[in-house]
Amino acid sequence: MKTKNSTNSLLEKGKKIAIIPFLSVVFFMNMASTCSNDDDNNNSSSDPTPVINTVTSGTWRVTYYFDTDSNETSDFAGYNFTFGSSNVLTATNGTNTYTGSWSVTNDDSDDDNPSSDLDFNILFSSPANFADLSDDWDIVSRTATKIELIDVSGGNGGTDYLTFEKN
Question: What is the longest distance spanned by two Cα atoms in the chain?
Fold first, then answer.
């Protein structure tokens, strides 16, 4: 025969066991509500204007270029890049000058990485090492003096990285 104290003790244990799943749900809902996309530092949004204003100010140099499986930064040593008006991109080292085009556009569904908001588009037709830069890059991060880009190839799955820093 159970006593009143043992019955109360079982009811207390049952309440404790029943409250654990409830507290777990509350905890996870609270944790999920603290997550947001604005916590990262990629500074990209659907408005290309801030990126355009950044790159059209001054000249830039490639400080890192990794093409799928090799560091090819040295191919651009000594070159200054100017992101000019009318989307004209110029790279010059004082001896050689190459002209291409550039733009920053809202991401589209044909992009390799639709999770990014903006595409940083670069197009050079020649020489070959500059043509390698031609792509619709995704912006990883942007400050007033540095822009880090990434491109994941849809064909071979390779990942390219490109970093410009302001001179």
Answer: 101
Burial label, 73 (beta-carbon count in 10 A; 0-12, 13-18, 19+)? middle
Give the pairing of strands 80-83 and 70-71.
unpaired
Of the candidates 84, 64, 58, the residue with the CA atom closest to the CA atom of residue 133:
64
Cross-strand partners of 138: 119, 150
Place of tokens 């916590």: 39
pLDDT, tens only, 102-129 = 999 987 545 454 455 789 999 999 999 9
The shares of helix, strand and coil residues in the chain, as percent rounded to the nearest 5, are 30, 35, 35
Under 8 Å CB-to-CB from 165, ≥6 apart: which residues?
60, 61, 63, 145, 146
The whole-angstrom separation of Cα 117 and Cα 11 is 54
Q: Is 49 exposed, middle or buried (0-12, 13-18, 19+ CB in 10 A)?
A: exposed
Distance CA 31, CA 27 (A): 6
Q: Structure pTM?
A: 0.69
